[in-house]
Design goal:
Blueprint lengths: L3 E4 L5 H10 L4 E4 L10 E4 L4 H10 L3 H9 L4 E4 L1 H6 E5 L12 E6 L10 E6 L12 E6 L4 E5 L4 E9 H5 L15 E10 L2 E4 L10 H22 L5
The protein binds glutamine.
Glutamine binds next to helix 4.
């Protein structure tokens, strides 16, 4: 069974822990490298990625976080957490920030603009639609949100969002909401999965809808089960 850690340096870690509790799963606050050994899976929450990176550096967390991801353990980054997990981030101030990496993506840190350009949108997420029915879409809360501009071949796109092509070719200026002219419409990626890594540019922990948390817990249990059954295979003699 998954034991889910939540990186608790800054940002919306309490909200993630509350969402897990609603599913009957205990979330463990992670602030020190050794605490990562007590969990099977990890959520890196939204917040402010530069501040989070400074705190992670202060607590010497980067080597253990990288090891956790590279070992194939389940990790989910939301918003600033997604930026942390990307191999490359653009749209940063000079000098940039440390990243954990692992996700073969280029992320624009503030693609959707500043706090006042935050918005909510219904996203089509086929992966979350249950066979027994239920909602067809997920309401994404985007707060100073990043977007994925490029994703490698191993990355599965779980949701995207329409923007103007013009906006994409000039991704350093703040976005206006959807384009007025559908002919010029393009898309950015806002949710992905690459093996053990899940990334969302929005904040599922700020909604009452726990489907993303269920998805992550299920994904964690599958990965744990796979790892334990492969380690049970007797060594060839
Ligand atoms: N764009 C923010 C950053 O750079 C992330 C915003 C968020 O997590 N809500 O950290």
């Amino acid at each position: 069974m998954a034991v889910v850690g939540v990186l608790a340096l800054q940002g919306s870690f309490n909200e993630h822990i509350a969402a897990l509790r609603r599913l009957g799963v205990k979330g463990v606050e992670i602030r020190k490298p050794e605490q990562l050994q007590t969990v099977t899976s990890l959520i890196i929450p939204g917040g402010e990625s530069t501040t989070m990176a400074k705190l992670a550096e202060y607590h010497d967390l980067f080597p253990s976080l990288r090891e956790f991801v590279q070992m194939g353990k389940p990790v989910w980054g939301t918003c600033a957490g997604l930026i942390f997990l990307a191999n490359k981030a653009v749209g940063q101030k000079a000098g940039g920030q440390h990243l954990v990496g692992g996700l073969d993506c280029t992320v624009h840190r503030n693609f959707f603009g500043s706090q006042i350009q935050s918005f909510e949108a219904e996203l089509s997420v086929p992966e979350l639609v249950s066979k027994e029915g239920g909602p067809e879409t997920f309401r994404g809360i985007f707060i100073r949100a990043p977007a994925i501009l490029e994703a490698g071949p191993e990355v599965k796109v779980l949701a995207d969002y329409p923007v103007s092509s013009n906006r994409l070719s000039n991704s350093d200026s703040p976005i206006e909401d959807k384009t007025e002219n559908p002919e010029e419409e393009s898309k950015v990626i806002v949710a992905v999965r690459q093996g053990n890594i899940l990334g969302t540019a929005f904040h599922p922990e700020l909604t009452a809808d726990t489907r993303w948390h269920s998805y992550f817990v299920k994904m964690s249990n599958e990965i744990i089960e796979e790892a334990s059954s492969s380690s049970l295979v007797p060594a060839q003699v």
